[in-house]
């Protein structure tokens, strides 16, 4: 079973509380998603592999560490995942970015895929799928299905707010995918919204409602 890790750094908790408030403006919401994503990126990249490298300082030759250059890909689930990309890229600017477009049918709550555009060598990359919300888990599961169909094998899922129902479903469907979230909330309501949550992440990020 994949692990579900709540990243509860005080800076993340503080920023997430502002993000959740209904009176937070679109501008502030966007900035906060970006900042929290960067802080999460720092934590979820903890186990990136290092290798020895010999360097010359002004004083001496020394063997130090550098990233192995393992290829990374950040894959936002559209729309709301887009808000997390820049935060990740500020840490790993050379990462490639793939896109998976998906929306939830408001009646059935089932996800509908409308776009998949990925780096050609996605099968060789460590992938971070990013989406602020893991609610019923439908979108995340379909996104991972889509990636695996194209050969991807090394996938982590990073979100800001998760519902226990979605965590369970994603873990059951894809036990090899570790989940990282800034908060594990109480439950889903009858409309599939996370309680207390933060509302509709896409609409709040882009100001569409
Ligand atoms: C939101 C969110 C996730 C999905 C989570 O997207 O960004 O992708 O819902 O819900 P689930 O776990 O129940 O699938 P939405 O469908 O609102 O699309 P949008 O980002 O285009 O607004
Ligand atoms: N998608 C959202 O944007 N918010 C929720 O609470 C659930 C799904």
Task: Note down, in words, how this protein is organized.
With 209 residues, this protein is an alpha/beta fold. The protein has a single domain, classed as Rossmann fold (3-Layer(aba) Sandwich). Helices cover 31% and strands 32% of the residues. The protein is built from 6 helices and 13 strands. The chain has helices at 10-20, 26-44, 85-91, 138-149, 164-173, 201-206, and strands at residues 4-6, 50-56, 61-67, 72-78, 96-97, 99-104, 111-117, 126-130, 133-134, 154-162, 178-184, 187-188, 194-195. The strands form 3 sheets. Strands 1, 4, 5, 6, 7, 8, 9, 10 and 11 form a 9-stranded mixed beta sheet that branches. The chain starts with a strand and ends with a helix. The mean pLDDT is 96. The structure holds 1-O-pyrophosphono-5-O-phosphono-alpha-D-ribofuranose and uracil. The site of uracil has 9 residues, from helix 6.
